[in-house]
């Protein structure tokens, strides 16, 4: 169906309004926590009525879903950045080299909000489902990226080994976000040399195991 100018305008306006609500909710959740934040507080921060909030989001869980979706899109853009920077070359080298953006990426991440969402997921099944679905999407995208990296080397990745490596690396980077809360004076840049070494070793180990498996056949 062809969109009319009026329809496109309404959709654009709705997108702006949704973003306005998500920004306000983000500020409220960060300051007061999920449980202590009310829709009334969000409406005041957004500068719109409670009715308008419910027009775009059914409840606070739906607002969290919107926030998680925004974060998910940023991670997927990160994956595309790696593919683009590899320019058809070695994706593993591109992944390691991308750590030059690590400090900026960490500074742009809203760590207090992320921790608040994860904490809520630990006690709220609805939020847990949202967070887990996003994580599954991220893990799948990284598995696809690693599989592509191995294919470019003429290798076939071992699915079990891949999952284990990605989970360990996820724990490492999630843990660094926690370290910035425990130690706010930490400069993320100081971690980059060690991260380069750990990431390169983990990914090259995957390639080595894939090469051995290929040779055995």
Give your account of this protein's structure.
Helix 4 (60-86) runs parallel beside helix 8, helix 7 crosses helix 8 and helix 9 (159-182) packs antiparallel against helix 10. The chain is mainly α and 217 residues long. The chain has 2 domains: 1-57, Homeodomain-like (Arc Repressor Mutant, subunit A); 61-215, Orthogonal Bundle (Tetracycline Repressor, domain 2). 79% of the residues lie in helices and 0% in strands.
Q: Roughly how many Å apart are the termini?
A: 53 Å
Order of helices and strands: HHHHHHHHHH
CATH superfamily grouping of the largest domain: Tetracycline Repressor, domain 2
Low-confidence stretches: none
Our count of domains comes out at 2
* Total DSSP helices: 10
What is the mean pLDDT? 90
Number of β-strand runs: 0
Shape verdict? elongated
Quick overview:
This is AcrR family transcriptional regulator. With 217 residues, the protein is an all-alpha fold.
Topology record:
Layout: H1 5-32, H2 39-46, H3 50-56, H4 60-86, H5 91-97, H6 102-108, H7 111-121, H8 125-152, H9 159-182, H10 192-216
Helix pairs in contact: 1-2, 1-4, 4-5, 4-8, 5-10, 7-8, 8-9, 9-10
Question: Which features characterize this protein?
Answer:
DNA-binding; Tetracycline Repressor, domain 2; elongated; 217 residues; single chain; mainly alpha
């Amino acid at each position: 169906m062809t969109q009319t100018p009026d329809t496109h305008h309404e959709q654009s306006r709705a997108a702006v309004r949704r973003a306005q609500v998500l920004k306000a909710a983000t500020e409220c959740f960060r300051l007061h926590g999920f449980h202590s934040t009310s829709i009334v507080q969000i409406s005041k921060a957004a500068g719109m009525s409670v009715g308008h909030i419910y027009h775009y989001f059914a409840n606070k869980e739906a607002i969290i879903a919107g926030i998680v979706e925004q974060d998910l899109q940023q991670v997927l853009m990160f994956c595309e950045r790696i593919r683009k920077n590899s320019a058809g070359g070695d994706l593993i080298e591109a992944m390691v080299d991308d750590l030059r953006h690590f400090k900026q990426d960490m500074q742009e991440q809203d760590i207090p909000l992320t921790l608040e969402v994860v904490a809520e997921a630990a006690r709220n099944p609805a939020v847990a489902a949202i967070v887990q679905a996003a994580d599954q999407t991220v893990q799948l995208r990284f598995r696809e990226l690693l599989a592509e990296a191995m294919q470019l080397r003429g290798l076939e990745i071992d699915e079990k080994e891949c999952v284990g490596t990605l989970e360990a690396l996820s724990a490492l980077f999630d843990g660094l976000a926690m370290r910035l809360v425990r130690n706010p004076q930490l400069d993320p840049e100081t971690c980059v040399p060690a991260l380069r070494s750990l990431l390169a070793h983990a990914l090259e180990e995957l390639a080595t195991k894939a090469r051995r498996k290929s040779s055995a056949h």
